[in-house]
Amino acid sequence: MAGRRLLGKAFSSGGGDISVIKRGRQFFSGLFARLSEKDYTFAIDRLTEPELKLFMTMSAYDQKHACSVAMALEDESASLDLVRAGLLHDIGKAMCPELTLLRRSAAVFLEWAAPEDAAFLADRGRGKMAKALKAHRMHPSIGAVLLREIGTDDYIVALVEGHQSPNEADCGEDALRLKRTDDRF
Q1: Among 38, 45, 69, 76, which residue's beta carbon has the most beta carbons within 10 A?
Q2: Exposure b/e, 89-104, CB count within 10 A at least 16 = b
Q3: How far is the C-alpha of 131 from the C-alpha of 3, rounded, in Å?
Q4: Which of 166, 162, 132, 156 is CA-nearest to residue 54?
Q5: DSSP state of 58
Q6: CA triplet 138, 142, 144: central angle to 5 degrees?
Q7: Using an 8 Å Cβ cutoff, are 92 and 164 in contact?
Q8: How many CA atoms lie within 13 A of 161 on its CB side?
Q9: E strand or H helix at 94, and its extent?
Q10: How many CB atoms lie within 10 A of CB 171?
């Protein structure tokens, strides 16, 4: 019965911000992600040297995703701080080796389809998938710690830390803009 509810939710028009097709596309584009010269130049021109060093520790998929988010924000006339937060919002994932592309995709889908089960597994589960769920939930906090250590502006750190829970972040509209843009890519 739960399987039918899940499939119904996944393929219905009222499935929310995420769909199976969208996440499937993201997964397959992640397999072949490469940072272009334009992307690299974009990051170099906006990040400090320590931030750029952290940025370069991210997977190619995360770098490409971050550039897409930041470029979209800049196209919408966002402040430089918000654009930099777009480039750095997933920096905590670089410190989570259990977040492979496949496990990350599964974690996002499970958190969308069965949030209570995902929370239970992240809090009390064992094994690689449980670790991946916990890492996915913790990456904003991990990223914030990394950015604080290198002296990134507090406002950017707060945006990164709150990018998955913008209503709880103390960054107003910018946190919501970052989340909405992140969800598009």
Answers
A1: 69
A2: bbbbbbbbebbebebb
A3: 23
A4: 156
A5: S
A6: 120
A7: no
A8: 18
A9: none
A10: 22
Q: Which residues contact 86 (CB under 8 A, 6 or more apart)?
A: 66, 69, 70, 72, 73, 78, 178, 181, 182
Q: Which fold has domain 20-184?
A: Hypothetical protein af1432 (1.10.3210)
The residue extents of the domains of the chain are 20-184
CA separation for the pair 6, 10 (Å, rounded): 6
The distance of Cα 24 from the centroid of its chain, to the nearest Å, equals: 16
